[in-house]
Structure formats: structure tokens, C-alpha cells
Amino acid sequence: MRTIVWIAGALSVLVGAHGAMAADIKVLSAGAFKQVALAMVPQFEKQSGHKVAIDNDTVGGLVKRIDGGEAFDVAILSPAAVDNLIKAGKIAPGTRVALAKVGIGVVVKEGAPRPDVGTVDAFKRALTEAKSVAYIDPAAGGSSGIYVAGLLERLGLADVVKPKAKLIPGGAVAEHVVRGEAEIGIHQISEILPVKGAVLVGPLPGEIQNYTVYAAGVGASAKDSEAAKALIRLLSGPEAAPVFRAKGMDPASP
Question: Which of 2-16, 22-36, 72-86, 91-105 has the weakest average pLDDT?
Fold first, then answer.
């Protein structure tokens, strides 16, 4: 009887210790990484007992929020943004880990004609002939929007596209295309694939493709840095690779 009581007491201590160790982890994530995080967080919560809350925004938007003092445990941003926040004392030194990279693609509404975007000339023709073109507003700080704006200048299409551009302040460009607000859209592939009613026409031609790398870092004031590091280990480990590919991304080189 004393043995049974002792075992019950030991189990109670273990359960209590697990509850005490459980942490609430706040993740600030760039939108392109959202689908990967959503897919992997349930596994992490089940394995660790921790709870994870994910908040998405553009990289620029998240940096402004962090600079403004918003609390967080893990940030998933561009490597440059993570490095700058380390210098600013917002992210803990030595915690930056490269996670994944994603290219840019062209999207149309399901059932709409699919323009040829297989070559640079074909891509230019598609943008010229489109009645409207949606992409992230570069002023919002989104990686793809900043790149697309520069690409249009380099291709000599800025004056052609700007009058019919639908600039999206954040979120999924594909959603606006599906709603009929623009004929075609240009956005990161991982943000096109999950949108119902959207069709990925194809990636940008290799000569003008741009890959955005995403990296994670632990907040300098994280409530539980070890729990935050454990989440980053899962997101950068071998189990993440098939999830990346399913969501339109590829593992990033460290």
C-alpha cells in the first residue's frame, strides 16, 4: 500500500513539474513562413507540452513592432533583419538559425487564362497585357514587394504596371486575385499555394528569380529561452524539410 502511495505521489510530482515547465511561446513570423509554422506547431506542442501563438506580418512590419517594444519569444524574419535586431539588443546573440528559402511566383484565379511566364520576355508580355497586377506594397516592408518594385524598374515596366497596380499592404496577394481585384498577382510561392481558388501559374524565370531566406532568433527578453530554442530546433531540423517542400519552400543553407 505504501508503495502504491509512493508511486502515485511520484507521478503527481512529475505531472506538476511538467505543468510548471510548460511555456507559452509567442512567435512573430513573416507571412511567407506562416504555413510551415502552422503545420509544425501541433507536433511541437504535443511533444513538449508548450503552447505556441503565431502572429504574422511583413518583415518590415514585424521589425517596427519589435523596435517599438512588442514582447516576443521567437522571431522569424530575413537574416538581415534578425542581425539588425541582435545589434539593437532585441534578439539574443548566437541564436540566429537559417530555416528556409522561398521563390516568387505568378498567380491567377482558378479558371482564368494562364499566361506564359516561362521566359523573361513572356513574363514581360504577361504583365503588359494584364488589365491589373497585384503585389505587396513595397512601402509595407514585405520582401517580395520590395523586390518586385525593383524588378519592374529593371525590366522597364514600372511605368506600364504602376497605373494598373493593386498594391497589397500585407497578407496573401492570391486572396485579392481570387476576389477579382486583380487579374494576376506576383507573390512568394508559399503564400500562393494555400489560397483556395488560386492557381500558381509558375515561378519567375530563373534569370529574374529571387529567393528570400528566413531565419529565426530568440527574443532577448524571452520568457523561456530554452523552450524557444527547442521550437527553432524543430523548425530547422530534418523533420521540417518535407514540410518546407509541401508548402512551396526549400531548406536554407546555414
Answer: 2-16
Nearest to 91 by CA among 31, 152, 28, 143: 28
Can you give the pLDDT at residue 44?
A: 96
The grid coordinates listed for 182 are 486583380
CATH code at 77?
A: 3.40.190.10
Same-domain check for residues 151 and 229 = no
The total of structural domains in the chain comes to 2
Whether residues 197 and 227 fall in one domain: no
CA nearest to 32, candidates 168, 187, 196, 197: 187
Alpha carbons 114 and 199: distance in angstroms, whole number: 9
Q: Within the chain, where are the H helices?
A: 2-21, 34-48, 59-67, 79-87, 120-129, 143-154, 158-161, 173-178, 189-192, 225-236, 240-246
Q: What is the pTM of this model?
A: 0.78
Residue 89: strand, helix, or coil: coil
**Residue ranges making up the domain that contains 18:** 2-100+214-251
CA distances from 46 to 42, 161, 182, 233 (A): 6, 47, 41, 15
Q: What's the alpha-carbon Rg for the chain, to the nearest Å?
A: 21
| DSSP category for residue 223 | S
Contacts for 71 with CB less than 8 Å, ≥ 6 apart: 26, 219, 221
Task: Say whether both 21 and 36 belong to one domain.
Answer: yes
